[in-house]
Design a protein that fits this description.
single chain, 694 residues, alpha+beta, nine-stranded antiparallel beta sheet, eight-stranded parallel beta sheet, GH101-related
Length: 694
């Protein structure tokens, strides 16, 4: 059993002519139906061509979409489709609204590319049409309320759901683990905020029973550009995972519009992400790492670099020189804003070594300057408490770790032209000559509504303000942020966090300080350096390779460099080291470390070998699209990726037995110019015996 996808060049990136790379699958070629559609012109019409705009039979509106025909029931918003080969699919069951159904629909009016109608009892108006081969349905509410729709995964042939939790998951709908509740690591009964908790505003399903020899597979991609105010709830029905989106129409939040696009795909596990990459490109919202390098040549130093936050000796010139002597060619080095940041001599040494270096900072938290426990939370004048975000009842939004408050991006934007609080902070933090900057929180999905008189803002306004200040920073620094959402991909060069499929149990584990470690000693905080064994359910939910798929890289590789969360350094989870190293090489993403003098002694040689293996692969393919992902075995333990037009091909064996000569626990990578693949077996680099304690 294999699975694969390809993305036509020129469709999913801002540059390049039309081109299709072919991948063999059981001697047949499978290509994303969505991508095929997106390579062509939009199927919607600009005039009143009824054939192109579909047909209406009673309550059934039929619209031609890429790969088949979509059918919308104007009475209930149920959506189905007929694929080009005749396969029928359920894309959504009927919608539900507060107090019951949608009520009796108003008259249907034909439009140039579809139709419009309303549900007067609920104050909803609907337009349906075709855009770039996708069915697009937009709901607009005249009053506050909610709608639960689309209702997905109900087709009896639904076989797996694709969910962008961190890098991404492909979950068989009948899998017993995921059909359990969140307390056991599963999804049943849980609700995720699409805009805040997913790394991409999408999900998808694949259908089974349709992938015989020579036949096209089937699936559906759901894109939700109006992600603020949208949530996705999972339920286990008859031992099968289903999901229902709910959108809250809120005039105060500016979420009175709800937009969902449906695309027919070939059922591939990364098809929804390929569809989203195309969507971003079509709407002029897909960034380019090549362009960022042209604008700031220092950005090129990200290519081939591992990332590390440094402490103690590792943040001195001597520590940097030790790294260089170990043979580490490129690194991104970050440091916190404590009392002993990297000094100018250390920064000069880092630049001389070819490394990027920059501070950790945040503009999101404020505390009383007299008692603030972090320099990043101390601000001049009356930034605290005047800039605090306040809830509707007037109380402040509690800040990091229950301390202080979250600060309003709107208040900062209004003050910046005259007060220069952010510019002054940045100037102070980089007085040592740093050429990079890590701005925590700003690019994450967690945004706020502020009710404070004088700097009121919606969540969308918060997002826009953060984007504006990140754009300013990106002109002078190689900019990164936490768990970057795609709306920030054009301004960021890297992120820490979107590579990690965080499960709920992780936060509880991190709060267990005796197990996880605390934020001391200052030169090597146990929270970062103490090795931890994940509970079995948490390890399975986050790092079992049979569920992992590169949705984030499919959507955004070549726009920014993505890594795991900084508190989950490579050495933090000894039991997952081999898996994480293989995933990093397979996805062409850097490992993230924390380093001090002791860890340089204990793990520096291993780090150097891994970085030297990674460097030429990432330098060649870091600016390329991920164009193919395949499972080479039925148990999903052997996986393959391709970047660019064959620039790099990587095969990873997560199993215990060899496959086509590749041993278990090893990875082969082959550049286009290589005569033979380059092999790495990470476990062979690790000294035997238990991990060192801290």
């Amino acid at each position: 059993m294999t699975s694969s996808f390809t993305i036509p060049r020129g469709v999913n990136s801002p540059t390049g002519g039309p081109r299709r790379r072919r991948i063999s699958r059981a001697r047949t070629t499978r290509v994303l139906a969505a991508s095929l559609a997106l390579a062509s012109t939009a199927l919607g019409v600009t005039g009143c061509d009824r054939a192109a705009a579909g047909t209406l039979h009673g309550s059934k509106l039929e619209l031609p979409v890429a790969g088949g025909t979509a059918v919308v029931d104007t009475g209930t918003l149920a959506v189905s489709a007929r694929a080009g080969d005749g396969r029928r699919m359920v894309l959504s069951e009927a919608a539900a609204a507060a107090g019951g159904g949608l009520g009796k629909p108003g008259a249907v009016t034909r439009t140039a590319d579809g139709a419009r109608w309303s549900y007067p009892a609920k104050g909803l108006s609907v337009t349906a049409g075709v855009e770039h081969g996708r069915l697009r349905i937009r709901l607009r509410a005249e009053r506050d309320g909610s709608v639960s729709w689309p209702v997905t995964g109900t087709d009896r042939a639904a076989s797996s759901v694709q969910l962008p939790r961190g890098e991404g998951l492909d979950i068989p709908v009948r899998d017993a683990f995921w059909n359990a509740g969140a307390e056991k690591g599963g999804l049943a009964g849980s609700t995720v905020d699409v805009g805040a908790e997913l790394s991409l505003p999408l999900w998808g399903y694949a259908l089974d029973g349709s992938q015989g020899a020579g036949r096209q597979g089937h699936g559906v991609s759901y894109l939700v550009p109006t992600d603020i105010g949208t949530s996705l709830r999972f339920a286990s029905v008859g031992g099968r995972l289903r999901s229902t989106a709910t959108h809250a129409f809120d005039g105060g939040e500016g979420t009175r519009e709800y937009d969902v696009s449906f695309a027919l795909t070939d059922g591939d596990p990364v098809a929804p992400a390929a569809d989203y990459r195309a969507y971003l490109a079509q709407h002029g919202k897909l960034g380019s790492l090549r362009r960022k390098i042209r604008q700031n040549p220092a950005t090129a130093k990200l290519l081939g670099a591992f990332h590390a936050y440094v402490w103690g000796e590792a943040r001195t010139a001597t520590g940097v020189e030790r790294l260089k002597r170990l043979g580490v060619g490129r690194m991104w080095l970050g440091y916190d804003a404590g009392p002993h940041p990297m000094d100018a001599a250390a920064v000069r040494a880092a630049k001389k070594a070819g490394y990027l270096v920059g501070p950790y900072d945040t503009f999101a938290n404020g505390q009383d300057p007299k008692t603030a426990d972090s320099p990043t939370s101390a601000w001049p004048d009356r930034v605290y408490p005047d800039f605090c975000i306040r809830k509707a009842d007037g109380t402040p939004e509690t800040g990091f770790g229950g301390r202080g408050c979250y600060l309003s991006s709107r208040a900062f934007e209004k003050a910046e032209p005259t007060k220069h609080y952010l510019a002054d902070r940045t100037r102070t933090m980089t007085a040592n000559g740093a050429d990079s900057y890590f701005l925590d929180v700003d690019a994450t999905g967690e945004v706020f509504r502020d009710h404070t008189a004088g700097h009121e803002m919606t969540k969308a306004g918060d997002r826009a303000n953060r984007l504006a200040r990140m754009r300013r920073l990106s002109r002078d620094f190689v900019l990164g942020s936490e768990s970057a959402q795609p709306w920030a991909n054009e301004v960021l060069a890297y992120d820490h966090g979107s590579g990690t499929p965080v499960a709920d149990g992780l936060w509880a584990l991190e709060r267990d300080k005796p197990t996880w470690g605390n934020y001391y000693p200052e030169n090597a905080p146990k929270a970062f350096f103490k090795p931890v064994r994940l509970p079995a359910e948490l390890a399975k939910a986050m790092y079992d390779p049979k569920y992992r798929v590169p949705l984030y890289e499919t959507a955004l590789h070549g726009s920014l460099v993505n890594a795991e969360r900084w508190e989950l350094s490579y050495e933090k989870l000894p039991a997952q080291k081999t898996t994480r190293a293989l995933l990093a090489m397979l996805y062409n993403t850097p490992l993230n470390y924390v380093l001090d003098g002791r860890s340089l002694t204990e793990h520096g040689s291993e780090l150097a070998v891994l970085q030297r293996y990674f460097a030429p692969l990432h330098r060649a393919a870091g600016t390329e699209r991920m164009t193919s992902f395949r499972w080479l075995t039925g148990d999903r333990t052997v996986q393959r990726t391709v970047f660019g037009n064959g620039t790099l091909t990587v095969t990873a064996n997560f199993g215990r037995t060899a496959h086509d000569g590749l041993p278990g626990g090893c990875v082969d990578a082959k550049l286009r110019t290589d005569a033979q693949p380059r092999r790495l077996c990470p476990a062979q680099l690790t000294p035997a015996g238990p991990a060192a304690s801290r």
